[in-house]
Amino acid sequence: MMLKVDIFLLAFTGTLCFDATLDVLSSVIVLWRYSNAAAVHSAHREYIACVILGVLFVLSSLCILGKAIHDLATRVPPEVDDFLYSVSVVSGITCAVLAVAKFMLGRVLTSRALITDGFNSLVGSIMGFSILISAEVFKHHADVWFLDGTMGVVIGLIILAYGIKLLKDMVPRVRQTRNYERFE
Hints:
By secondary structure, this protein is mostly helical. The protein has a single domain (2-177), classed as Alpha-lytic protease prodomain-like (Up-down Bundle), CATH 1.20.1510. It contains five helices and no strands. Helix 4 (112-140) runs antiparallel to helix 5 (147-177). 34% of the residues are buried. Residues 1-17 form the signal peptide.
């Protein structure tokens, strides 16, 4: 039983670590998008940033879906100790605040890349809180062990759909603007 709990804790912290890494990468992409003063209004850079974010979302969704499906197939119940509870709360709150700030700034700057980065932070917040909700429900109703895995599948599918839509919308725009703007 202890080995099963240790494997779950490792997988859960790995998921949080992967989510944090994805959030950092998406923020780095947005920083790159605005890194060149001459390219602040560059539609081409905006579209490239969105394409890269779309690829990251597709890859992220595949990892999330893989873990969630594995957890459902092996009937892994959600279990959270005090450390993971703290990490989940801090991650959920921090990502929620970042999401609101990125959405507001993205709207002011009319930047789809920044709004997409905000969406990524929002997903991170939802993931942080979903494990807590799943663990609490499981404590009172052991027959609902599948809630965390199901939430993972739903979140993974949403991220996948968003990533595919982003790629579908932005790849043609990158092609259209590549000859009009050349900033490095």
